[in-house]
Amino acid sequence: MNPAEAYEALRDEIGTVLVGNDDLIEHFAVALLTRGHVLLEGVPGVAKTTAGHAFARAVGLDYNRIQMTPDVLPADVTGTHIYREGTGSFELQRGPVFSNVLLVDEINRATPKTQSALLEAMQEERVTIEGETLPLPTPFMTIATQNPIEMEGTFELPEAQRDRFQFKLVVETPSREDERRIIDRFDGESTLDAESIEPVLSPSTIGDLREQVEAVHVSDPVKEYIIDVVRAVREDENVDVGASPRAALALLHAGKARAAIHGREYVIPDDVKALALLTLRHRVVLNTEADLGGVTSKSVIEATLESVAPPDVADASVAQPAGE
Q1: How many Å separate Cα 236 from the centre of its chain?
Q2: What is the C-alpha separation between 30 and 262, in angstroms, rounded?
């Protein structure tokens, strides 16, 4: 199976439950194939949690969900040692982070201290519990949902936490046409949910797909284009803190996966353009003047993509490594 076939199978299977979410499924697939994590933002009721659960089932991976609230502690995420009176010893009780896909629901309702419990897991795929470092299952992926920060009872994610997410996806309310399709579908099958999704991939298949993505070629002009875009956003007059080199790497890897699932062996500028907003917007911190003036990270990135000239498409496929 190649990445394009895998994406098509995922889209078809998840589409039996979700309506009008092809872009969401594509970006989930890109993140999975590049060891990335996804942050979903949207108002309650737009199927953020259902989308994450459906994706986990479709890729055939172990799945855990944790509902964040202000009283959730770091140990509730990673686990802790429990004293067993019968044996007179402490036993490790693993937290929900020990899964292939961890769905962190309403992450911005947890305190920053609890949010930080995910940093090591998301960056190094391991956790440290009372001095003992334990590896997480492979593959490991975090899908976190959050309500818009304007909503009551939310905490803004720290910059270090946001930087661990490859993408921030904004889930909009469906169009009128899609909303009618949702009503019609669930009118006939009221019990239809993510549990009805059948696996179309497996952990071993995912490992092979990742190797295929890593082999996708990125020409020097496209690499330069990625750097030009990231640096232009970073140096924009409205930006206080720009995207880090980690963001440039995330954009590089995501571009390779997008090329692969669209049946190409090389990245083109359109791959970078399609993924730049999703990769950069949550990493950008605007200065006070821009914030007060109504400037958004989205508008800064879109303006950058308009002003930075991409290389010719023909240049993207040249200079292939020997033997390709």
Answers
A1: 25
A2: 11
